[in-house]
Amino acid sequence: MRTITPIENSRRHEEFCPLDTTLSILSGKWKSIIICRLMGNSQRFSSLLKGMPGSTNRMLAMQLKELVADQIVSQRTVATHSVYGLTAVGLSLVPIIKAMDRWGKAYLETLQLA
User: Fold this and answer.
1) Averaged pLDDT for residues 72-90
2) Which 3 state secondary structure label does DSSP give 27?
3) What is the CA angle 100-73-88, rounded to 5?
4) Which one of 13, 21, 25, 84 is separated from 5 by 20 to 30 angstroms, measured CA to CA?
């Protein structure tokens, strides 16, 4: 579990920096993948885990717990299963995630040309 919240992280450089808050929310090996998987629709825990080879049950649970605490992802119980989806705040991250993906692709292509 993380030791500092995204809000606390926004002041880690002795000044207010909202970018640090954003990076803190997205930091974590699986958080960007989780958000991408939930962009299309809500999913059960088991479906998310199947779509993320290499992630463990414990790691996914921990990353989801942080995203829920940050109000990026919602968790509801349907029958006996937890279902996760993006909140309104989480949905507002979608264009940012997509822009970061495009930037990463262009960056990698630039490195290959160098």
Assistant:
1) 94
2) coil
3) 80
4) 84
